[in-house]
Design brief:
This protein is mainly alpha-helical and 184 residues long. It folds into 2 domains: 93 residues, Zincin-like, CATH 3.30.2010; 90 residues, no CATH class. It has 8 helices and 3 strands. It has a 3-stranded mixed β-sheet. Helix 2 crosses helix 3 and helix 3 runs antiparallel to helix 5. Bound molecules: zinc ion (ZN). Zinc ion binds next to helix 3 and helix 5.
């Protein structure tokens, strides 16, 4: 077998094209994310990562964990596709929101709702509960989201993130005003 630890540009392009084709075949659940990726010229790459399946980059690209995925992976793999949808959602959010529990709740919900729609496999209980949570600024709700994320993935580094995007978090600490103006 060829050693694909360092795929070349055309192998990467080909893999990426197949991933985006697979997403477009899966219908309107991922249309918004696909449009965003094509408008921003988002590319898919691989890199070593400690605790994540994938990550977004400031250049609006997506990097898959090279220990779990390679160009040998089936580009139609539903777990991989849901990760890509999750990361595109973070790119849509922008970095301040992406680095918050609120942003993660949004991206987990978008990614796993996509997965639930296209896969016949049931989701584990913490995920089903996570999908039931409202995407709201309630801090109690965001704390509950953190608990469920850690139940699902105990090594997940969500504790590093503020509940709100950092600029909103600072306002909350100073004034106890939620984003949008309501007081808690
Ligand atoms: Zn995320």
């Amino acid at each position: 077998m060829t050693n694909h630890s360092k795929p070349n540009r055309s192998e990467l392009d080909n893999f990426e094209k197949q991933v985006f084709n697979a997403l477009s075949r899966l219908g309107d659940q991922s249309t918004q994310e696909l449009d965003f990726a094509s408008r921003h010229n988002t590319h898919i790459k691989f890199s070593k990562q400690k605790k994540s399946g994938a990550k977004w980059t400031v250049l609006k690209n997506i990097s898959l964990n090279a220990d779990s995925y390679s160009i040998e992976t089936d580009p139609g793999d539903l777990g991989l596709l849901s990760l890509v949808v999750h990361e595109i959602r973070h790119l849509q959010q922008g970095p301040l929101t992406a680095l918050s529990v609120y942003g993660e709740l949004d991206a987990w919900q978008v990614g796993f709702r996509f997965y639930r729609k296209v896969s016949s496999k049931p989701l584990r209980k913490p995920l089903e509960e996570l999908l039931e949570l409202p995407l709201s600024w309630s801090r109690q709700n965001l704390l509950q989201a953190k608990i469920l994320m850690k139940q699902y993935s105990p090594g997940y580094r969500i504790d590093w993130y503020p509940l709100y995007p950092i600029h909103h978090e600072i306002i909350w600490w100073l004034t106890h005003h939620q984003p949008g103006g309501s007081e808690t």
